[in-house]
Amino acid sequence: MAAGTRGRLLTRVLRALVVTALLLWVLLPFYFLLLVALTSKSDSLRTPPRWIPTMDFGSFHSIFKSAFSSAPPSNPSDLILPGIQNSAVVAVCVAVLNVVIGSMAGYAFARFRFPGSKFIPGLMLGSQLVPVFALVVPFYVILHSLRLTDSTVGIVIAHLSFTVPFSVWMMRSFFAGIPIEVDRAAMIDGCTRWQVFYRVVLPLARPGIISVGLFSFMVSWNDFLFALVLNSKTDSTLIQPAISGLYNVREQSFGIMAAGTLLAALPTMLLALISQRFLVRGLTSGVGKV
Amino acid sequence: MSGIELQQVSKRFGETLIVDAIDLTIEDGSFTVLLGPSGCGKTTTLNMISGLEEVSAGKILFDGREIQHLPPHKRDVAMVFQSYALYPNRTVRENIAFALKLRKMPADEIQHRVQEAAELLNIKELLGRKPRQLSGGQQQRVALARAIVRRPNVFLLDEPLSNLDAKLRADMRIGLRELQKELGGTFVYVTHDQSEAMSMADQVVVMNGGIVQQDAPPLDLYRRPANRFVAGFVGTPTMNLVTGSLGDDGLFAGDGWSVPTGWSGPSHENVTLGVRPEDVTLSPGTGETSGRVRMVERLGIEAIVVTAFPFGDIVARTDPDTDFDTGADVTMGIRAGKAHLFDSGSGDALPRTEMAKEGRHV
């Protein structure tokens, strides 16, 4: 019995060690980010590092001060807040359009038979195998000829092109998991096709909608390549190029870089935290046995 | 109320013909059962009546009005599905009320109707629950309540009892019949279970291969099957079917054996003789047509005796206290006027007028 207790204790200790190691692995970089962001410039590069931040808000101050001045941006750090704002507009548009297009196309692919209804979803999934880098130049050429570079519309179109196929595929599998009798019962109850979709089936696919919205928001928010190539103007820059713009050969400001990165990571982190609750609840209450 | 009429209705999926130009009249206020094995086209026929499937050809009329081009929500039909198909994210109350809400009925009227339907089906205490918190029988009653709450003219039921256990199924047969009497609508009920069809229907439409095989009240179907398929499909144990030929003396003869059928009329080659188990008489001893008892099932109310004859096994339904035992030698006879004869080629029943009054034993 003593051996059993000792064995169990050992398991618990081991488990705790593994969990701690994993947590450190995930959280330590974040902690270091926080540390650098909240440490004065002179202290931030010390060896060994200070493990307790000096609570110096200078980096955040220099990011935010431009927001309250009417002067045109003069430093790279002045572009962080406009970048967040621009990225928010783009990512929200991309997420909303993904949900709308993904659910409507996904429903059509899941429920209707038409020429290509089997083939096209496979093609869409296949398109995900093409490296995104391969699309940058063609997109630049096309959007430039349409005068859509340096514009929110252009970047939204680019982001849609590599998020929508996945969203359609995902929504299609969600709808396919809902028994077709539910659609039929709704039609008998008096729904038009459109009402079947938005009053009956769409609420059942809520976990899918949240996943698709979240996924496409994050892809759009985290995109660096397209945001860099398709935009050359400072006032329409997105957040990821804005952060990379902080990297300056003449003057290394790690504090401002860290602070900017933290601000950039905040929206996606919050979004993930909030929607996670809905996601879990949705999965347990939605598509059950009918 | 609505009478339903199908005129030359066909359904084709690609190259496959599922329903082949059927004509059907369903009386206003009747309980009509579409009966047949799986894949016979009965559910497709029901779906064409509901509007869930489009017809490939032909007309469907409700009270003389053509409706085959209308979508389901314009046909005023209610339907109960085999899987019940309740909306999983809505409560029982919301499930039942949904159709009324779509029609923008005032809230107090909806409340009243839902209450009424719930009372009729004895599910009042379940109104606040979600479908997943209900047993199969309860879900089934919710599905029925959802159908009746709209007071439609036509009720379509697609194997509504097949997911229930035997006891509940027997109860619901009675319940459904009573419900129909109370509501008075036209019920069209699809099943592959012939005993369900026999016990509930005013009219049974037997289908096979996309064609209506026979359309008759249950007892007619049992007593005067129109063809060999219906004869074999309706009744348990199934009708004994033996192939041979009919002489003009009414003697049905096979290879080296014969049995009198009581039929008089022209001789006929290639005939199938059909005899229901309760119309087979067995007597002890050997004769021209004798066989050996293979098995006796004593079921309490009756005994089922399976006898091996030269032409195959014959199932007889006898007295539960029958003396026959496995291995006994018996001869077979047919009760007077109870032999059915079918053309072996077409499967159609030979005209009944040829039947004589007397039957004899071998």
Automatic annotation (TrEMBL), chain A:
Positions of the ABC transmembrane type-1 domain: 84-275
Family annotation (Pfam families): BPD_transp_1
Gene3D superfamilies in alphabetical order: MetI-like (1.10.3720.10)
Keywords: Cell membrane, Membrane, Transmembrane, Transmembrane helix, Transport
GO CC, alphabetical: plasma membrane
Family under the similarity heading: Belongs to the binding-protein-dependent transport system permease family.
PANTHER family in UniProt: INNER MEMBRANE ABC TRANSPORTER PERMEASE PROTEIN YCJP, MALTOSE TRANSPORT SYSTEM PERMEASE-RELATED
Stated name of the protein: Binding-protein-dependent transport systems inner membrane component
UniProt organism field: Actinoallomurus iriomotensis
Automatic annotation (TrEMBL), chain B:
GO MF, one annotated term: ATP hydrolysis activity
Gene Ontology, cellular component aspect: ATP-binding cassette (ABC) transporter complex, substrate-binding subunit-containing
SUPFAM superfamilies named among the record's database cross-references: MOP-like, P-loop containing nucleoside triphosphate hydrolases
Keywords (A to Z) from UniProt: ATP-binding, Cell membrane, Membrane, Nucleotide-binding, Translocase, Transport
Tree of life domain: Bacteria
Listed Pfam families: ABC_tran, TOBE_2
InterPro entries noted in UniProt: AAA+_ATPase, ABC_transporter-like_ATP-bd, ABC_transporter-like_CS, ABC_transpr_MalK/UgpC-like, Mo/tungstate-bd_C_term_dom, NA-bd_OB-fold, P-loop_NTPase, Transp-assoc_OB_typ2
Residues covered by the ABC transporter domain: 4-234
Ranges in a coiled coil: none
PROSITE patterns: ABC_TRANSPORTER_1 (PS00211), ABC_TRANSPORTER_2 (PS50893)
Protein known as: Sugar ABC transporter ATP-binding protein
Biological source species: Actinoallomurus iriomotensis
